[in-house]
Amino acid sequence: MRRGDADDAVALGRLRLRAVQHGSTEVTPDGETFVAWFADWFRTRLGTHVPFVAEEDGTLVAVAWLALAERVPGQTGRPRLFGDVQAVYVVPEARGRGMASAVVRALLADAAATGLEHVTVHANEAAAGVYRRAGFEGDAMWLRWAPAP
Question: Is 51 helix (H, G, I), strand (E, B) or coil?
Answer without folding.
Answer: strand
